[in-house]
Structure formats: structure tokens, C-alpha cells
Amino acid sequence: MPEVNSSAVPGSSGIAWRWRIALLLCAVTAINYLDRQALAVTAPLLVGEFSLSNTEFGLIGSSFLFAYALGQIGAGVWIDRVGTRRAFAIAVVAWSVAGILHAAARGFWSLLSLRALLGVAEAANFPAALKAVAEWFPSAERSMAVGIVLAGTGVGAILAPPLLGGLAVAFGWQAAFIVPGAVGILWYWLWLRWYRHPRAHDIGPDVQGPATDEEPSLGRLLATREVRGMLLSRFLNDGGFYFFLTWLPLYLAQSRGMALAEIAAFAWLPFVMADLGNLAGGWAGQRLIGAGLSVDASRKLCIWAGALLVAVVLPFAGEAGIWGAIGLISAALFGIQFKASSLFALPADVVPSAAVGRLWGVFGAVGSLGGMAFVAAAGLASEHLGYAPVFIAAGVTQLLSAVAINWLVRRIAPLELKARS
User: Fold this and answer.
1) In whole angstroms, what is the distance from residue 346 CA to residue 412 CA?
2) I need a labelling partner for 165 at 20 to 30 A (CA). Which of 46, 67, 220, 402 fits?
């Protein structure tokens, strides 16, 4: 797969423009996570108002992830077909409306259905964002670009407790769903105003050219050992992050006795560390490649460093005092996202940019299915055994995710796909 060096983007204006695109993608990811975090932040109010059990709340969270997983499979192929710009514009309007509709929820079944609708609508975010990264960034800069995009998850999670919690306390829980939806409509306008394919900016061709004269089908990609290894790793990876994204406010309320106002004041702290992990992981990957390491060595080193940090610190969180627990959870989220900056770059490392959407759709889907299973299991485990076993499982799955990369992805490099006979 020939790759155009970053010098193929002429002038500093091309370089500056692609980092502007990365910030725009970070912003929409933050909005995306504000929309989905509204449920977690208002969970103490919703559980009380609608008399929800932990198991029911786990199922509501899992309904989002199940729909999100299925949606990403179709979204990836759709994005490759209609293009990044148009697909993102449609998707952000759809999920903004779906988020606002949560304000009309009346109980378990309506919340379950609305979460599924939001999941389908939000499914386009990461396939489209990572396709844009593949179109705009060379491999040496890609982990940093992915880190900036993923930083949006932390920004959304950081803003959610004080912003959405404050709205819920001041105006009722419905406001926590309405406001993020309105912000999404504003981003839609900025996106249509600013984003074009690199060629439309007269900046140059894709930074990653196709390996063959034809775009590889999803079936041909799934037939490779490397892609199957990436999918297994992603399935094992996402449970820990989705657990804290979905359960942290409820955990602090149930196990640590925090009121909603206290949760709004402190629950954002772990996600500051998650964001630092995104940026540190992206920076480390870029620096390692700049120092002479191969893409393969750089990605694997960062993946293992993050996984080991999570596995070492998280099992102690359940027994620590409240501030110790918040500190250990913060360190674990740093590790999870440090690892993700390299793991999430892999689809763009191995296929042409024209096929990144379809591969990332499946890659994201299996991650969401893994997250769905973990979140549902966390509901059952926390109700009957407490939260300590969940923390241990989150650390173990991170290690198994790293093992899957080393075991099945022998070399992170453009795939050499056999031509069809």
C-alpha cells in the first residue's frame, strides 16, 4: 500500500488545516458523549423516579450498546458510500433529535427504546471520524490525531457531571437531555461550513493510497488473521471504559453515599485523566515512530503499557477509601485511553482510506458488543456481589485485549490482500 509522505501536503496551511479537522472531530465526539452521558449523570434521579433496579438500569445501558454495535456495521459501509461530510451531517442531526426525545421518557420500556434509537444514530461517529483521520493524516501522525479525536470522549465525560448534573438539579432531569441535543445542531452548521475532502481543499491526495486497484470487500478483510485479531482485541477492550462511563455516578451514589450535587462536583475527575491518557498515548506513539521504531513496535508498546497500568491499579479501587478509589479509577482510565490511542488507529494502518469506514464499523461494533456484555454483567454482579469483582474483570480484559494483538496480529502494516481470481 503506497503511502504519501506528509510532505505531500504542500505548505504549512495544509498541515494546519488537518489539525483543525482533528479538533472539529474532537468537538463532535465530545457532543456525542454528552448526549450518551446524560443517562449516567441523571441515573440517581431516574432510578428513584421510575423505580429501576440495577439489573434494569444495566439493560437500559446495554440496549444502547447493542443498537450502537449493529448500527456501526451498517454505518461503516454507508459512510464509505456517501462520504464523510454528508454522513456526519445526517448522523449528528439524527442523534441530537434522539437525545432530546429522552425528555419524554416515562419508565423502563421507553428509556430502553430511546437508548436503542440513540445508539443507532450515534453509530456513525467513530467510523466517520476515523475515516476522516485516514484521509487527512499520514501514519506517523495518526496516533496523535486519533488521540485528539478520543480526547472528545473525555471532554464530554468531564463536562457531563457538572453541566448536565447542574441542569438536572436546576431545571429537572429532562434538561440534561435537551441541551446537548441543541449543541449538536450548532456543530452540524460548523461541519458543513468547514469540512471537505483534502482534494477539495487543493491540498493533495489521500495520505494513504489503496493497496490494489479495487477496494477490498469486508468479507476479504475479515478473512485475514490480522483483522480477526484486531476484532478480538477490541471486543475485550471496551468493557472497562463503558462500565465507568455508564456506572460511575451510580457507583458513587450506591457504594460511596454521594448525593447528585457531590457527584456533579467530583465525577468528572477520572475523565480528566482519561483525556490525558488519550493525548499522552497519541503523543507517545508519534514520538516512538519519530525516534525510529516501526508502526508495529510503537502501537504494540503503547497497547501493552496501557493494559498493564489498568491491571495493576484497578483491582485495589474497590477496597480503597473514597478518594483513593477515585484516584485509582482515574489512573485506570488514563491507561485504558493511553492504550486506545494506538488500538483505535489500527484499521487506518492496515487498509486504504476508502475502506476504513467499513472496517471501522465492524471494529467499533464488536467493541460495543463487548461493552454491552460487560455493562449488563456489571449490573448483575454489582447487585449480588458488589463492585469489587467488576473492577478486577475490567483489569483482566485489558490484558487479554493486548494478548490478542500480539498473538494474532503478527505485524501491524498494510495488508497484502490476494487479488480475486
Assistant:
1) 7
2) 67
